[in-house]
Amino acid sequence: MSPCSESGSDPLASLPVHLNKTDLLGLTFEQLELALDHWGVGKGQAKRVFRGLHVKQQALTEIESLGRHAQVIAQHSEIAQARLVTAVKSPDGTEKLLLELYDGAQIEAVLLPMRRERYTLCVSTQVGCAMACAFCATGTMGLKRTLSAGELVAQVYQAFQYVQTKFNQSGPQDQKVLSHLVLMGMGEPLHYYERTRSALKVLLGQHGLCFSARKVTVSTVGLVPAMQRFSQDFEGRVQLALSLHAGRDETRQKIMPVAKKWPLALLKETLLKHPLPGRRVLMLEYVVLPGVNDSPEELDAVAEFCTGLRALVNLIPFNPFKNSPFRSPTEAEVLAVDQGLKQRGVPCSIRVTRGREKSGACGQLAIEGYA
Ligand code: SAH
């Protein structure tokens, strides 16, 4: 028994776990201090270890002046990995990274170039997904497993290094940076919310890479209890996106099984309580499925849902995948929804489809398109 657990309660029991050990990459700075103290390494090493792991992205043995402590830390903990297998580029500049986890499971992360040498990374939180939305390729895979917090962090670091080494060889001028994260890859980020929470705390925390909260977006199918916790934990500073996709429960239930559990009225109540600091707005995603969710009655219901919410509807033209039961909308069909919502007083925008040529667009991530 460790010296501090004599009272019966182990102070490390609540820390994130990876492979039955403490999930080193998933620990916040304060949690790392606690763990190092407990393992006899001492709090004083926390800054050095945290900077090594998160800023320099080093292995324990590479961290300067850590000496024998490296071994002690390694005994108690595990550093999650997300190995880069391959990358494919779409003609529009989007790059899809195929990453492999310790058990051979594969996930995808998509790098989206933006203006001014910035990149957004579309992050996966699970291998597959349990939500089974009818219009989503990942949903057809079922849930294989959820990433640990450390694996989520490792995925971001792998993409970070990819940007650094691939694009920044020409010197310090025009350095490209990974600045934005969207948790919109494979999986439902609020399904095992604890893990997403830990990873976000690490990525946003002040001693690491310090991602800016307003440049991070979490997209959810609408798991109400986890949404409430997310609102409290991040006080609205991290952007919340809800996959709305219909204005009526009846329609929503046809395309999103989760809608049977969490009806629109409850979602709206939850969104009304979500804090919106400054000029923040909620994002409501709406995949345009012709003949399914674009009727005037549906748009009336969307407008009704949006009444009283500070929200922007983001229209996503349906991206097709193998054997998908829906067809893509024409440009005119997407514009009609856009106009229809605007006429009803709903602010809305159309998401530019990117990466579709290599199956890297919204809802197409299912480990295909690497040929
Ligand atoms: N599980 C999260 C993240 C999913 S991916 C969520 O459901 O919000 C991000 C967005 O892409 C979601 O709004 C999702 O519904 C949408 N999407 C899924 N499949 C799609 C497809 N084939 N075409 C267009 N958008 C899709």
Short précis:
This protein is α/β, with parallel strands linked by helices. The protein is built from ten helices and 15 strands. S-adenosyl-L-homocysteine (SAH) is lined by residues 133, 135-136, 184, 188, 219-221, 243, 285, 287, 316, 318-319, 362-363.
Gyration radius over CA: 22 Å
Fraction of helical residues: 25-40%
Supply the number of helical segments: 10
Note the overall shape. Answer: globular
CATH architecture tag of the largest domain = Alpha-Beta Barrel
Whole-number average pLDDT? 92
Small ligands present: S-adenosyl-L-homocysteine
CATH homologous superfamily identity of the largest domain: Aldolase class I
Structural class: alpha/beta
Summarize this structure as a short list of keywords or feature phrases.
371 residues; alpha/beta; TIM Barrel; 2 domains; ten-stranded mixed beta sheet; three-stranded mixed beta sheet; 10 helices; 15 strands; 30% helix; disordered N terminus
